[in-house]
From TrEMBL, chains A, B:
Record PANTHER family: ENOYL-[ACYL-CARRIER-PROTEIN] REDUCTASE, MITOCHONDRIAL (PTHR43981:SF2)
Signal peptide: none
Species: Mesocestoides corti (Flatworm)
Record protein name field: Enoyl-[acyl-carrier-protein] reductase, mitochondrial
Keyword terms of this UniProt record: Fatty acid biosynthesis, Fatty acid metabolism, Lipid biosynthesis, Lipid metabolism, Mitochondrion, NADP, Oxidoreductase, Transit peptide
């Protein structure tokens, strides 16, 4: 009886109801993305009983994707592979053993390294997270990495109270923009440091854009240096650093007693010249935040789903807007990748995150 | 009735049974110690009801004392003042309201900045800690700062288990010597980094001295670099840094996942060039330890007394030896202070802590 059931299930699991090919960007060796990436159309194999066929529609390109291709990221996917840790799409078909997902559901990958730079992919049901269908595809695509990073950095290190203050550099980054919006929701002030632009007009336009996202004080490093009344924004209990190098001192210097500096990026590619005095006498802490590390470690899926639900509610109620982005069709992936590689020159305005878009599979 | 009682008590409180002068080292302004320190004999005033007259017999000179005189330490005593945060002596006389101390008791200051570089001093009973009378005066004098620092750094940051490993630089320092002895007691391995001496023979003698104190591995930084089998000493979960600057990287590099680097000194007077990758991807932490800060903060006197009792037991049972020292009579204080000022040149052998000794007041 069991044998018959298994045989039936095996037949069923191979019965993908139509022929599907996935357009995917791939790499078979590490190197500079434009040198090693190539395009490949791949036929989608039969679905196993717990498999889910996903049609990706939007896959953001993050710095960690670029670093993964370069081979400088600690997560090393098996090669040849498809890059991309983030994306959103719709379920096209499910294997017979799939119970929590159905065709039409909006989903995102629940793990890192699942490869999102492709129009279609097959995963085990357990590897996907079902999202609120009210999210539009871009809100869904950007839900995971940057908002979760902002959220967890705000929640995990110090017990922030209304009236406290957060300081951050790289304020024009997507994480920076979510930090200032979430802080505003929580009644927490933010001091946001950004680089002056080429002209005073561009600098003012960038500042205004960040103020519109809810930043309390938006200043260049020089302006902060001259700022006299910094105390009035509250106790600066935590700093978020994605720059590294000497500019990080602007944060360390202003942390309150027992403050924490959390580093989540190092765009300046320079170590932090950590002064010993404040570490000892102000009881400061330097910590690092890595979303994938924490996720892998904690294994607390329920807490993660609750967080994603809270962020979803904020987005659907308009309390949090997604950071600026530019959608580029996957056929133009070379231009999308090229625009995503970090360059030291100062952007003219607020940087936009690049997202690869894929067509709907009908 | 109350008025008569108060008057009687006032009379009593002035009745110091003999004339006492204190020989004390003082400074009335900040500067280089040998420039600003001077000697002064001061008559001891009347004892208040809760006052205790202490005859200091041994007062160690710590780097923090030198920095306090230089004005670079965050604790700023009222000037003119007597330097010294550490010392041990015997109670000579007590005011009538003193209940927990009596003449002959062995005591040490229970707070920072009480000024120990003097033969006699009057404190409120609450400012003193009564020590086990079995301790000899040198064991008592060195009980507080260095052993407490080692103890609290080992207990407060990670939950060390037998078989784990601690890495430290400045291993020839007094704190370093207590760290390796306490770790040995706790079944924890230690990797101890020291500077090579002028000759190979001196280097070997220094290494042997540290091995005799219980260090598991005692190496120069170059030797550690070439060491291949570091894993066999256990998980390196915490590092203790009193050097700072680039040499600190030797510790950071070898910390295990989620390891903590605790900085308690900065003899190299250079910031720590903290690499961002390990902070983020290895979830490392940089913390600072300041004994006075923690004591002031916690206010947990019971825990502190329990710790001092545990350290006392270890010393009395011979499980922990006090770090090498040199006792210098207070009359020769200039030489004592001069020997205590940190110099960059490499010592020929194991450095000895300097302790000012004062005569018994009979």
């Amino acid at each position: 009886m069991l044998a018959i059931k298994n045989a039936l299930s095996a037949v069923k699991s191979r019965s993908l109801s139509r022929c599907i090919s996935s357009c995917q960007i791939m790499f078979k060796e590490h190197g500079e993305p434009l040198d090693v990436l190539y395009e490949k159309t791949q036929d989608i194999g039969p679905l196993g009983p717990n498999d889910v066929l996903v049609n990706y529609r939007a896959s953001p390109i993050n710095p960690s994707d670029i670093n993964t291709i370069q081979g400088t990221y600690p997560l090393k996917p098996k090669l040849p592979g498809v890059p991309g840790n983030e994306g959103a799409g719709y379920v096209l078909e499910c294997g017979p053993g799939v119970s929590k997902l159905k065709p039409g559901d909006l989903v995102m990958p629940g793990e890192a390294s699942l490869g999102t730079w492709r129009s279609a992919a097959v995963y085990n049901e357990s590897q996907l997270i079902k999202l609120n269908p009210k999210l539009d595809i871009m809100q869904a695509a950007f839900l995971n990495i940057n908002p979760s990073t902002a959220y967890l950095m705000l929640k995990n290190y110090v017990d922030l109270k209304p009236g406290d203050c957060v300081i951050q550099n790289g304020a024009t980054s997507a994480v920076g923009i979510y930090v200032m919006q979430m802080c505003k929701l929580m009644g927490i002030n933010t001091i946001n440091i950004f680089r002056a632009r080429e002209t005073p007009e561009m600098t003012e336009a960038t500042r205004q854009a960040l103020l519109d996202f809810g930043g309390t004080l938006v200043v260049t490093e020089d302006e902060l240096e001259a700022y006299e009344d910094i105390q009035r924004f509250g106790k600066i209990r935590i700093g978020f650093n994605c720059v590294g190098g000497k500019p990080t001192l602007a944060l360390i210097k202003r942390l309150d007693y027992s403050g924490v500096l959390v580093t989540y990026g190092g765009m300046a590619r320079q170590p932090i010249p950590t002064p010993i005095g404040p570490l000892i006498f102000k009881d400061l802490q330097l910590r690092g935040f890595w979303l994938s590390g924490r996720e892998n470690q904690s294994g607390n899926k329920e807490a993660r789903l609750a967080m994603l639900e809270e962020i979803t509610d904020w987005i659907l109620s308009g309390k949090i807007k997604i950071a600026p982005f530019e959608s580029i069709p996957h056929t133009d992936w070379k231009s999308a990748v090229s625009k995503s590689i970090f360059k030291d020159d100062i952007p003219r305005n607020l940087p936009r995150k690049i997202v690869l878009s894929f067509p709907e599979i009908l």
